[in-house]
Give the backbone structure.
Amino acid sequence: MAMYRNRFGPHQADQTYIPHEFPEQLVDLGEVEINYAMVGDSSKPALLLIPGQTESWWGYEQALPLLAKHFNAYAVDLRGQGRSTRTPGRYTLDNMGNDLVRFADVVIGRPTLVSGLSSGGVLSAWMSAYAKPHQVIGAHYEDPPLFSSQVAPTIGQGINQTIGPMFLLWNTYLGDQWSIGDWEGLIAAAPEVLPAWIAGFFSASSHEEPSQNLKEYDPEWARAFWSGTVAASCDHARMLRSVKVPVLLTHHFRLVVDATGALMGALSDAQAKRVLELLEEAGVVAEYRSFETMGHSMHGQDPQLFTDTLVEWSLPLSS
């Protein structure tokens, strides 16, 4: 295998990116340029789509034609992902959330629904709590790692008992902004450093070269989550107590490993229950839907179910 060093990211666009079905646009928000794709027209309710960690906007590519029938949808690349700007030392929920606030102001320009997957689901929660008044009318948290992506959560498993060891592996061997890029070393180390259940998933994928979504990802994101700096100024419980709009929480596959207490999945049943309790304390209407056989990304695995679920929940909010 070839050694991949310093190859991927906006500074190596030709080696990094591939064409897509939908046109992409860049908007300058000050510190960052945010890349996005848009479908649907302004006669339909606005919808902001926030991808998960290692997912660029095109993770929604199969869902966008379905969503366009119901929404004016904007799928973004967060800072440090896709074609958006890399920001060394500044990957925090608050910075990324404020990027989205500015994006909603500058690009969308009207009240919007928000739907985010995984880390994007945590940012959907951030928007539902901290966006400008009347900027967000409802928020979908798609299988979000609330509490479980923190180093020391107030309930349940933290990042070291979930997918965190994979983040540590990525950052150690790829480096911030792909500054190391030792793909061969990463593959060799994975069986030794990953817990067995994570290594099992990892071994099922091809290792000839990094996947397309990983090429478009700044591995400093991984370090920010593993170290806890991403949420150092944004406690999840405090955030959830501050939510101001109706919420849909979709909860996908999860399993707690008896021998170790590790969590396979984004959040445990106990953590989901606590999310709903905090939303009740906040005085907002929260709907919970469990999809125990669904993989992490519903919009990727079953775009039709994702669209139907979103339309059914949001119709009363946007009518």
Remarks:
- The mean pLDDT is 95.
- The first helix runs from residue 13 to 16.
